[in-house]
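Changelog note: in this version the structure field was regenerated for every chain. One regenerated record is shown below for reference.
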Amino acid sequence: MASSTSWVYALRAETLAKLYLTRSRDLDILTLSESTNRVQYDLLVRVNGVGTIDTPEFGVEVKGISQPLESNRWRSTVLRNLARWWDRSEDETTDQHLPICLFVFNIDTEEGLYLWLREPHVEQNGYVKAYLSTNLPEGNGRQKTAISNGVRFEKLDKVAIDRIVDKVVEWYRARDRLLRQANGLAENSVPIYGKP
């Protein structure tokens, strides 16, 4: 009975994630099959019409729960399970540099929260740097431990989806600038000559 219940929760949560995501911009949402075990997310979201070298995309891990979103009971369980899974599969994954969000839905109220698992960051101190950080604390190489204290989930709605997409697009644009600079190209793809 528990496995059929969890299957229904997972299916409903994935449907809610797609519904939330399709309310925003021009996004393509791809469902990954269960046989795809080399990725750490359920959905791949592509942002169309940005004009970057690579199409901006991010992964979404989806969880469905029956407990109130305000409760802390589900948080430590979900984060601990994610940390264990990531620790086991980190070396085998193909998308180690892809931004990834966790969407958690209460399947009764259809409300959601999100948390960056691999958050894109852009710093500008004369150079553009783009890197990812994770909200799942690193262990000492043997196992990651996730603690619900200090991990901040945020409300998931259309505004939050827009913020997520904007952050991912900004990160891809920063990567574009880095790639263009490394290859001697200006912003408009014209080779840069005569620079010291």
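Spot check on this record: The radius of gyration is 18 Å. Confidence is low (pLDDT under 50) at residues 138-149, 190-196.
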